[in-house]
Amino acid sequence: MAEFNAPRRGALSYYPRVRASKQTPSIRGYGAQGPLNFLCYKAGMVQVIGKNVHKASPTFNQEVIAPATVVECPPLKVFGVRAYEKAEIGFSALSDVIAENTDKELKRKINNFKAPSNKEGKEKKEIKEKKENDFYTMADFEKELADIEYFTLLVHTQPSFKKTPDVSEVFLGGAKEAQLAFAKEKLGKVLTIEDVFKEGEYLDVRAVTKGKGFQGPVKRFGVRTFRPKHKKQRVVGSIGPWHPATVMFTVARAGQMGYQNRTEVNKKIIKFSKNVAEVNPKAGFQNFGMVSGEYALVFGSLPGPAKRCIAMRKSIRPAQHKGVQLQSVEKIIINQ
User: Fold this and answer.
1) For residues 69 and 30, what is the distance between their CA atoms, to the nearest angstrom?
2) 63 within 8 A of 50, measured Cβ to Cβ
3) pLDDT tens profile 240-286
4) What is 77-123 written as a DSSP string?
5) Comparing C-alpha atoms, which of 140, 77, 86 is closest to residue 110?
6) What is the tens place of the pLDDT at every residue in 121-177?
7) Residue 215 and residue 315: Cα distance in Å, rounded?
8) Eight-class DSSP state of 31
9) What is residue 52's DSSP assignment?
10) Which of 120, 145, 299, 332 has its Cα between 20 and 30 A from that of 222?
């Protein structure tokens, strides 16, 4: 009989295990062409039927059933362009150029976009005129292009199930001249997921995981429990020696579990579609409702609960072909 083996869970690389500072995940860019990341919302999971094209798999060239996540992908509204310059350490934002017409929903998220009062004194008007003169324009960016390192797009989501959007940045790849030209074209317009990704492409997903509150070491790290006759069962046997009298950070302790930023790499997009009848259950997805507009099917599971904002970026590591690889989706099975 094999010996009992239960290694503790919880990689030390994720320390400290604290709650995420914000629910909208942030992603940094890298050198590629075009927009590099996108924001969408997790709806739920379905099962898909397709042919397995992974030659090393036992079910090669056979029809298999695999799990997939439905992600609602409303177009992102580009409301600004941001330029970055070199700083003493890293990069710092030089200035922003904001579109003339912004959506009223953006005022719910950013107070600066609230309409100013009509009752303004002489001093306030002078300050306002001075600020308007200090604002950057796209022409100023062209003049100072030599000092600028790269550009990003300031975007906000347009979710169907809430009024307050999520605000983030979309990084652009390529030379800064191409970035500026693309930013000029997209300012005040929308960016769709098909402008960033293609079907069959691999991507990295970042999101805030499900929060589970304050948990003990058994659930949080999977430490082994003691026998029933022991004084306590769900505790760590020894948290450290008497001398030196200290508790190392590597010891499994109780604390916050979940609601932390996590990145999963090499997730494959297996389908884009606007035909929501293919994936919507009769009563809608649990804790989400009905998917509206364009959606994407991502192979496997994604971190976070339903309605959680998910950031996607182009994959930065070579894809490792393991398990089932679907060439296309032949049928979608909905759990009614």
Assistant:
1) 26
2) yes
3) 999 989 998 889 999 999 999 999 999 999 999 999 999 999 999 99
4) EEEEEEEEEE-SSSEEEEEEEE-SS--TTHHHH-GGGSPPPS---HH
5) 77
6) 555 555 445 445 567 889 999 999 999 999 999 999 999 999 999 999 999 988 999
7) 33
8) S
9) B
10) 299
- Residue 165 in tokens: 């959007």
pLDDT tens by residue, 290-316: 999 899 999 999 999 999 999 999 988
Are the CB atoms for 204 and 265 separated by under 8 Å? yes
Taking the alpha carbons at both ends of the chain, their separation in whole angstroms is 43
The encoded tokens of residue 306 equal 């339903």
CA distance 146 to 270: 41
Which pTM was predicted?
Answer: 0.87
What the block records as the tokens of 279 is: 């994936």
Q: What is the dihedral of CA 80, 295, 47, 301, to 10 degrees?
A: 0
Domains of the chain: which residue ranges?
38-73+194-210+259-336, 75-191
Q: Which helix (H) or strand (E) holds 191?
A: strand 190-191
Q: What is the 3-state secondary structure (H, E, C) of 146-180?
A: CCEEEEEEEEECCCCCCCCCCEEEEEEECCHHHHH
Q: Residue 151: which of 175, 127, 116, 185 has the closest Cα?
A: 175
Round to whole Å and give the CA distance between 288 and 44: 8
Q: Which CATH class is domain 75-191?
A: alpha beta
Backbone torsions φ then ψ of 282, nearest 5 degrees: -60, -40
Q: Dihedral of the CA atoms 43, 47, 49, 54 (nearest 10)?
A: 90
